[in-house]
Amino acid sequence: MSQTPLNEFRKDPISGDWVLFAAGRSKRPGGEGKDNVVLSGGQEVKACPFDDPVAMGQEIVKEYNNANGEKWVTVIKNKYPAVTPGACGPQIQIGPFSAAAANGFHEVVITNNHERTFPDFDLEETRLVLQAFQERYQEISKYECGDYIQIFNNTGKDAGASIAHPHSQILSTPIVPPLVARSLNGAAGYFLKHQQTAHKSLLDWEIEQGKRVIFKNEHFVAYCPFVSHKPYEIKILPRQQNAKFETSSAEELTGCAEALNFSLRQLNKVFNHKLAFNFFIHTAPVKEENLFPFPSDTFYHWHIEIVPHLSILAGFDFSTGIIVNVIDPDQAAEELRTA
Ligand SMILES: [Zn+2]
After folding, report:
1. Ligand 1 is an ion; residues with CB less than 5 A from it
2. Which domain holds residue 12?
3. I want to staple 329 with a disulfide (CB 3.0 to 4.6 A). Which of 43, 64, 120, 224 is the partner?
4. Residue 1 falls inside a structural domain
5. Do 126 and 201 lie in a common domain?
6. pLDDT (0 to 100) of residue 248
């Protein structure tokens, strides 16, 4: 008798945390299930499933060619989705717990070179990936189910990449993730108190101080935050207020690509091309009715965060939520600027 693997969001009623159970993903290459223990390397899969996605039977969503007419980006449906398309129902109660069916979209954005990761891309290659992110975001946000759309990249096994071939992921969720909701609520509170967006205040201060800024152009600033959670963490923030990644202009996306490209190249230089990292986009929720006192466009800036994997959380961090960071962000920025 076959049983459908558990695929559900469950909420902890005390902490408010949500956990996504995606038991079907334990069968994927590099998955954590015990069937996969032989794949302890995680990336030693013989035939790369992303070198020729069509031949490997992947379901193609969209392809993008570079200026020379060569295929550069292929968007596919994730073969082992953490969320699955379907009608979104209301949250349900299971005993004392809230739960929600794990319905949504899970797509993979593959770049057409097995060896070259984001820090190796040129500006146009980076820009084209951002364009693919934005167009898929716009498309997925049309569907009824999906309060939030998360775009993220895992580079390196230590950062959670289960397949070595460079790729990013887009995943929509039927809830607004707590971390996102917390930041938006914090930003709304700051705006109420100061009549200015928190991001604008932070940006003005960072630009005035200068020492943590690693790159800036007309549209974006990349810097190591004063309150960096991790060593060499970088934030890339638009200078013009805009809560929604999906509405950024083509010119702004090019400015963003420039900042992202520079930041990742410099990180790679500082760490001699051996760094595992994640980067992700934080943007306003697709659906935000009744979530905040006023529309997110008045108080929030979408942005990119780059988080290198240089430290692991330990007992104190886990137990208190206070992260221990052993690198001064002033020093990190100095190294990243001059590498
Ligand atoms: Zn490959």
Report:
1. 48, 50-51, 114, 165
2. 7-173
3. 224
4. no
5. no
6. 97
Tell me the per-residue pLDDT of 318-330, one tens digit each, with 9 for 90 and over.
Answer: 888 888 898 999 9
Q: Which of 173, 194, 221 is the last residue of a domain?
A: 173
Let me know whether 124 and 213 are in one domain.
no
Q: Which residues contact 193 (CB under 8 A, 6 or more apart)?
A: none
Helix, strand, coil proportions of the chain in percent (round to 5)?
30, 25, 45
φ, ψ of residue 97 in degrees (nearest 5): -105, 145
Q: How far apart are CA 294 and CA 110, in angstroms?
A: 37
Phi-psi region of 321 (alpha: psi -120 to 50; beta: other; left: phi over 0): left
Interval between CA 166 and ligand 1 midpoint (Å): 7
Give the dihedral sign, CA 288/294/298/300.
negative
CA of 20 to the centre of ligand 1 (A): 28
pLDDT in tens, 251-299: 999 999 999 999 999 999 999 888 999 999 999 999 888 788 888 999 9
Supply the pLDDT for residue 47. Answer: 84
Bridge partners of residue 20, in order along the sequence: 9
Distance (Å) from CA 49 to ligand 1 centroid: 7
Contact criterion met (CB below 8 Å) for 63 and 120 = no
Positive or negative torsion for Cα 140, 143, 149, 153: negative
Residue type, 287: K
Q: Using an 8 Å Cβ cutoff, are 315 and 219 in contact? A: no
Count other C-beta atoms under 10 Å from residue 213's C-beta: 18
